[in-house]
């Protein structure tokens, strides 16, 4: 997002991240292939450059360097864009609930991976929650928000005082949040995300 100021919000979970450009963006003349290749290559380079900061004891192997693909989709309205981002967050919850139950069965319940898959096949969210709580004492609501809600990266207006403390001016700052973006509250608190150029 530092490299591309046109990105107003991004949503990520697992190995997928969606970057949203402002509707008014003229980045690369709005040529989709140029936008995709530039953002994807910048993201990949940043990922590799920052790897040692997050996994210092796990060196990257030249035999299996991380790579990412990309695609561009044009959503015609803010409502449809919000529906897409909401769907991504719902998908994050579904996947994380499954994975939390799966790994509890494998690591704590000493089930094989195929047994865990079989036990979870066709179970509802309520059944997975009950399994986690009754068998492993895990209240899914206490799983950190980062895993249940994903990561929302936004530019938020912040007031900053000048050196003398007399005046303040508004600046956009990049923030990583783990919050609900499905309900209206987030969007009502931060209307500048989609509306400010």
What topology does this entry show?
Blueprint: E1 7-13, E2 16-21, H1 32-54, H2 78-108, H3 113-120, H4 125-136, H5 145-149, E3 151-161, E4 168-177, H6 184-189, H7 192-195
Antiparallel strand pairs: 1-2, 1-3, 3-4
Notes on the protein architecture:
With 197 residues, the protein is of the alpha+beta class. The chain has two domains: 7-75, no CATH class; 79-148, no CATH class. Helices cover 45% and strands 17% of the residues. The protein is built from seven helices and four strands; from the N terminus they run ββαααααββαα. Strands 2-1-3-4 form a four-stranded antiparallel beta sheet. A hairpin with a 6-residue loop joins β3 (151-161) and β4 (168-177). The radius of gyration is 20 Å and the shape is globular. The model has no long low-confidence stretch (mean pLDDT 92).
Sheet with the most strands: spatial strand order: 2-1-3-4
**What structural category do the secondary elements indicate?**
alpha+beta
C-alpha geometry: globular
How much of the polypeptide forms β-strand, as a percent range?
15-25%
Oligomer: single chain
Helical content, roughly? Answer: 40-55%
Report how far apart the termini are.
14 Å
If you compute it from the alpha carbons, what radius of gyration comes out, rounded to the nearest whole angstrom?
20 Å
How can the largest sheet be summarized?
A: 4 strands, antiparallel
The low-confidence runs, each spanning 5 or more residues with pLDDT under 50, are none
| SSE arrangement, N to C | EEHHHHHEEHH
Mean pLDDT: 92
Instruction: Give the number of helices.
Output: 7
Overall number of structural domains: 2
């Amino acid at each position: 997002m530092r490299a591309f100021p046109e990105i107003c919000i991004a949503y990520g979970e697992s190995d997928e991240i969606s970057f949203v450009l402002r509707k008014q963006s003229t980045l690369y003349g709005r040529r989709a292939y140029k936008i995709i290749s530039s953002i994807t290559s910048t993201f990949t380079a940043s990922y590799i450059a920052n790897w040692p900061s997050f996994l210092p004891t796990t060196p990257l192997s030249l035999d299996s360097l991380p790579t990412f693909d990309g695609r561009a989709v044009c959503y015609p309205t803010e409502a449809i864009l919000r529906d897409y981002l909401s769907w991504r967050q719902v998908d994050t919850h579904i996947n994380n609930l499954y994975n939390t139950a799966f790994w509890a069965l494998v690591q704590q319940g000493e089930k094989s991976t195929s047994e865990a898959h079989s036990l979870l096949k066709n179970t509802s969210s309520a059944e997975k929650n009950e399994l986690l709580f009754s068998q492993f004492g895990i209240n899914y609501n206490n799983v950190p928000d980062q895993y249940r809600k994903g990561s929302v990266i936004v530019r938020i207006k912040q007031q900053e005082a000048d050196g003398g403390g007399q005046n303040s001016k508004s600046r956009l700052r990049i923030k990583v949040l783990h919050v609900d973006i499905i309900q209206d509250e987030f969007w009502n608190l931060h209307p500048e995300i989609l509306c400010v150029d």
